[in-house]
Amino acid sequence: MEILKELEYEYINGYEMERDDYSKVILEDELRNFIYKINSNVTDEQVTEVLRKIKNLKH
């Protein structure tokens, strides 16, 4: 978390955010939209694969 703060990412406590399921750590819709935003030529299949890999990380 400290590294991300040093990189000027905004930190928001998960309980302060509006969401339906607090057990889900990854905000998939927001992450999907951000991936498209920073990668203009990415395909839907590539984004789906990236999300799958992120959700299955061991750490």
Instruction: Give the end-to-end Cα distance, rounded to a whole number of Å.
Output: 14 Å
Q: What is the tally of helical segments?
A: 3
- The percent range for strand residues is under 5%
Q: Approximately how much helix is present in the residues? A: 40-55%
Largest sheet, if any? none
**Which shape, going by the Cα principal axes?**
globular
Order of helices and strands: HHH
Radius of gyration: 13 Å
Based on secondary structure, the structural category is mainly alpha
The low-pLDDT segments are: none
What do the pLDDT scores average to?
Answer: 88
Number of strands: 0
Describe this structure in words.
The chain is an all-alpha fold and 59 residues long. It has a domain at 20-59. Helices cover 47% and strands 0% of the residues. The chain has helices spanning 2-6, 28-38, 44-55. The chain is globular, with a radius of gyration of 13 Å.
Quickly describe the structure.
This protein is an all-alpha fold and 59 residues long. Helix content is 47%, strand content 0%. The longest helix has 12 residues, at 44-55.
Salient structural properties:
59 residues, mainly alpha, 3 helices, 47% helix
